[in-house]
Structure to design on (382 residues):
């Protein structure tokens, strides 16, 4: 009996065995009725059997083995995604989803081997086709599941960030009221200032979370461009950072025409994040330099620091969100939320303005972030 014939003739017994495994070994499945567990398993196995029987050339097999042909079995793909959606809504973990497929595969292979008398190349070919079909189902199911998990997480972060704004605003207003009120002792004033610093940091975290959520949901950062001088915008930001860090040397150099149209607040955020990153990772006894140069239709902004270089493998994910360890309070610099989102947001601000960002880092030359911005964002008419 061929493997596809065995699946078709034993499908109910295979599904029963698989459902029993799920009820016994998967905590989430214990709360479900048998029909809720069996819903897609029988249909999935029938599609697998059909896929095994379908003609397949050597080139098609090669592409499928690499996961490059998800459309070659649309019924199988659709069923795997529907199963992932059902399991997601039922509260299955990713490990439980994988365990279901592993048990289903094992049940089929064991039954087939039990009735085999001899094995030949055709037997091996069928087993390969079966494993490829199951692997495709797993891949499609997990891809759908992971996408939904990430989307749910991003929505949760967005809601959390939005809902935190009101209590933070109330706390900030209360601190301001206390600071302008007569009668505080020196110790009380210091305590209120520390509260203000914490509120500012939390507000920065909320802003970073909202920016992160917006971009992760497929939306670009909102811009409000206006005519401005980029040198003046950067100088104001650097002056603010100097005031917070009188022990650090911040240098700035400007040349060329620096006029254009940008979202001034966003550019200030970009510069603040880059300089904060340079101060955090650069040697404290060396300066951080900010240089701007206007040439033709674009302006280049460079932020440089001396210190340990960024490893080449780390540079590949440097601008990805949440890829760097959370910054401890003692190491955090002004302008950074400490969430590991600073460079990600810098990249998103650059992209929203139609620009780009690059990094070069070595032991000899230090680390330089270079942002290139057109004089007008893409959505701004010339």
């Amino acid at each position: 009996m061929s493997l596809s014939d065995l699946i078709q003739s034993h499908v109910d017994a295979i599904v029963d065995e698989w459902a029993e495994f799920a009820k016994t070994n998967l905590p989430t499945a214990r709360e479900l009725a048998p029909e809720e567990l069996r819903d897609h398993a029988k249909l999935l196995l029938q599609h697998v059997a059909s896929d095994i029987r379908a003609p397949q050339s050597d080139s098609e097999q090669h592409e499928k083995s690499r996961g490059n042909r998800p459309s070659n079995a649309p019924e199988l793909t659709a069923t795997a995604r529907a199963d992932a959606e059902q399991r997601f809504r039922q509260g299955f973990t990713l490990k439980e989803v994988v365990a279901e497929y592993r048990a289903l595969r094992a049940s089929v292979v064991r039954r087939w081997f039990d009735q085999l008398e001899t094995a030949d190349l055709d037997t091996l070919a069928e087993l390969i086709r079966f494993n490829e079909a199951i692997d495709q189902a797993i891949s499609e199911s997990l891809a759908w599941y992971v996408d939904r998990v990430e989307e749910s997480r991003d929505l949760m972060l967005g809601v959390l960030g939005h809902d935190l704004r009101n209590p933070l605003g109330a706390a900030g207003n209360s601190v301001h009221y206390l600071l302008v009120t007569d009668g505080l002792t020196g110790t009380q004033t210091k305590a209120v200032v520390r509260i203000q610093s914490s509120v500012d940091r939390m507000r920065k975290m909320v802003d970073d979370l909202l920016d992160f959520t917006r971009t992760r949901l497929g939306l670009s950062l909102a811009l409000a461009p206006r005519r401005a001088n980029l040198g003046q915008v950067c100088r104001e930001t650097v002056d603010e950072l100097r005031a917070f860090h009188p022990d650090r040397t911040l240098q700035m150099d400007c040349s060329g025409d620096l006029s254009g149209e940008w979202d001034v607040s966003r550019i200030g955020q970009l510069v603040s994040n880059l300089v904060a990153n340079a101060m955090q990772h650069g040697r404290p006894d060396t300066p951080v330099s900010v240089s701007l140069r206007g040439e033709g239709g674009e302006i280049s902004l460079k932020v440089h620091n001396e210190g340990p270089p960024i490893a080449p493998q780390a540079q590949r994910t440097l601008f990805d969100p949440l890829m760097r360890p959370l910054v401890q309070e003692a190491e955090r610099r002004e302008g950074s939320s400490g969430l590991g989102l600073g460079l990600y947001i810098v990249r998103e601000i650059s992209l929203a303005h139609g620009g780009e960002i690059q990094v070069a880092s070595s032991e000899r030359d230090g680390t330089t972030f270079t942002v290139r911005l057109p004089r007008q964002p893409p959505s701004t008419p010339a």
Summary: The two ends are 72 Å apart (CA to CA). Residues 226-374 form a domain with the Heat Shock Protein 90 fold (CATH 3.30.565.10). The chain has two domains: 3-152, 226-374. The first helix runs from residue 3 to 25.
